[in-house]
């Protein structure tokens, strides 16, 4: 059994310097994007096929002027929706928990884009494929940490084996809880979707950071949906069958008596 | 948050065309098995229509892929001879449903022609019809389940597959009426065939049920901003005039009594059902991505 890899993003340590964004672009040789000012320091405005990680600048509208920062990227879910919905098997989850999209097998059908509960995968019109964070697979396979973790100057990003990272998260959680006992930060991703490969330590509600409070597999009721779709259609067809049979009999009787 | 359009007009056409072709086949097989001689023409017309829209829809889907030349990745795994199938993936299920549907509906069409000309093969035709029927039923549901299996608040509804499957039946019936009406116009007939007005009467009921399911779908989803958008300003005109008015209410009233109309009227109304069926998919598909 290969140990699962994981990353902890401690948002309380993030200063939004965006070193992680730059390091990601450099290591993965992703081009810069032409952007424009949108009224926020968040830049580029959203993830794209060539921006795999992005520090979100969130300004809560609660009267107080402040910022919340969250490094957005693929969360490498254990129950990964992209892997489940991929019709070609291009999206796959490795034994070490890293979720990748095989660029040689991706057809660009975009089902994963529409299905990801975190809006992560992005379509690249240049390659005709869907691309996203690879957890710097080529670095990790050589015993290095992902470029973003390496570049982070405040220690907000740590990478390692999942059990160790979880221990670290709990330790940090108790330190922050001492400062503010009423409001212990949440370890987001410990259990969610079978455990996320990227866990966040969140001092405020997950929704304040643009995350789902309770992410769930969108395909979980799919059998029920098939059945609810089939039943009325089958009922209508049964109705048509009855109607045609009746008419046939009536018409048959008529033509019989007409023949006499 | 801004959302790019992943699935555009070609996908909207596919959702419509797949349902349309499958709906026509379902009607054809029911007429074949239970209609007797009186409804042979409905069977032949439905069988004649069925494969082509679905085939066209599949071609549109392939062309719309980021890498159209990799379409075989849907069918074959890396390594020779091993078929690709991911039972968790609604799209993977759909690929196989569509593939089998196109093949079976083409075989059914050939057998319909054979049994018409040579007066043999009717049993085999019905046997293939039953198998094709099962695939067709699943195809009509598939397009809705594909969208309903995403976290999109507009699409993730248990009612969406029912909306699409019942709409597929109504467009399939309308397609048969359309072709038969066209035939009557070509022959300069004054009135439509009596069994065509029976189809219009049936479709009026089907559309009544569809209207009911759509109302439930809208009420259940009214909490989402996207639902309010498709019935509100952004798509309101297409929704209320195109889909509800012309696509549902007009054909519902037109066929309610089942009296024989002029073929021109049947042609126009059946075309409205088809237009409404397309717009329904278009608005729901786009509304979920804006």
Description:
The complex is a heterodimer of chains A (260) and B (290). Chain A folds into two domains: 5-209, Alpha-Beta Plaits (2-Layer Sandwich); 221-260. Chain A has seven helices and ten strands. Chain A has helices spanning 19-27, 81-85, 111-115, 137-140, 147-151, 162-179, 222-259; strands spanning 5-10, 54-58, 68-72, 91-93, 99-101, 122-124, 129-131, 157-161, 186-188, 198-202. A four-stranded mixed β-sheet of chain A has the order 8-1-10-9. A two-stranded antiparallel ribbon of chain A has the order 2-3. In chain A, a hairpin with a 5-residue loop joins strand 4 (91-93) and strand 5 (99-101). Chain A is elongated, with a radius of gyration of 26 Å. Chain B has a single domain (9-287), classed as Up-down Bundle (Formate dehydrogenase/DMSO reductase fold), CATH 1.20.1630. Helix content of chain B is 73%, strand content 0%. Chain B is built from ten helices and no strands. Chain B has helices at 9-34, 40-49, 51-64, 90-118, 122-148, 160-186, 194-221, 225-231, 236-254, 263-287.
């Amino acid at each position: 059994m290969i140990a699962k890899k994981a990353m902890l993003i401690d948002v309380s340590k993030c200063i939004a310097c965006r070193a992680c964004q730059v390091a990601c672009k450099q290591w993965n040789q992703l081009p810069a994007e032409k952007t424009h000012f949108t009224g926020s320091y968040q830049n580029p405005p959203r993830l794209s096929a060539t921006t795999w990680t992005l520090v979100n600048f969130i300004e809560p509208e609660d009267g107080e002027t402040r910022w919340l920062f969250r490094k957005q990227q693929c969360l490498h879910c254990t129950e990964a929706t992209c892997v489940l919905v991929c019709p070609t098997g291009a999206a796959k989850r490795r034994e070490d928990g890293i979720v990748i999209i095989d660029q040689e097998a991706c057809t660009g059908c975009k089902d994963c884009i529409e299905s990801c509960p975190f809006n992560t995968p992005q379509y690249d019109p240049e390659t005709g494929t869907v691309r996203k964070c690879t957890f710097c697979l080529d670095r990790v396979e050589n015993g290095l940490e992902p470029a973003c973790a390496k570049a982070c100057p405040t220690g907000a990003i740590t990478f390692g084996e999942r059990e160790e990272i979880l221990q670290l998260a709990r330790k940090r959680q108790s330190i922050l809880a001492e400062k503010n006992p009423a409001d212990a930060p949440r370890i987001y991703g410990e259990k969610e979707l079978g455990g996320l490969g990227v866990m966040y330590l969140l001092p405020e509600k997950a929704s304040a950071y643009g995350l789902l409070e309770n992410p769930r597999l969108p395909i979980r009721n799919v059998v029920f949906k098939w059945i609810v779709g089939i039943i009325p259609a089958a009922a209508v067809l049964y109705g048509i069958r009855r109607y045609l049979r009746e008419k046939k009999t009536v018409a048959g009787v008529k033509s019989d008596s007409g023949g006499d | 948050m801004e959302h790019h359009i992943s699935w555009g007009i070609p996908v909207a056409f596919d959702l419509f065309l797949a349902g349309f072709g499958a709906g026509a086949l379902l009607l054809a097989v029911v007429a074949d098995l239970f209609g007797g001689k009186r409804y042979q023409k409905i069977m032949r017309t439905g069988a004649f229509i069925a494969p082509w829209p679905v085939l066209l829809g599949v071609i549109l889907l392939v062309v719309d892929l980021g890498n159209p030349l990799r379409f075989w990745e849907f069918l074959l795994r890396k390594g020779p001879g091993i078929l690709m199938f991911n039972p968790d993936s609604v799209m993977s299920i759909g690929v196989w449903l569509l593939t089998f549907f196109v093949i079976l509906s083409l075989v059914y069409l050939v057998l319909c022609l054979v049994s018409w000309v040579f007066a043999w093969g009717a049993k085999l035709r019905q046997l293939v019809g039953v198998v094709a029927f099962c695939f067709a039923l699943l195809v009509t549901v598939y397009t809705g389940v594909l969208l309903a299996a995403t976290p999109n608040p507009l699409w993730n509804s248990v009612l969406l597959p029912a909306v699409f499957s019942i709409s597929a039946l109504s467009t399939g019936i309308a397609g048969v009426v359309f072709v038969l009406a066209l035939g009557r116009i070509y022959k300069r007939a004054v009135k439509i065939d009596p069994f065509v007005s029976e189809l219009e009467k049936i479709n009026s009921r089907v559309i009544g049920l569809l209207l009911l399911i759509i109302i439930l779908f809208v009420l259940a989803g009214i909490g989402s901003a996207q639902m309010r958008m498709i019935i509100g300003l952004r798509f309101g005109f297409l929704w209320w005039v195109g889909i509800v008015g012309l696509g549902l209410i007009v054909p519902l009233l037109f066929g309610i009594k089942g009296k024989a109309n002029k073929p021109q009227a049947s042609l126009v109304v059946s075309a409205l059902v088809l237009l409404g069926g397309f717009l329904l998919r278009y608005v729901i598909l786009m509304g979920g991505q804006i």
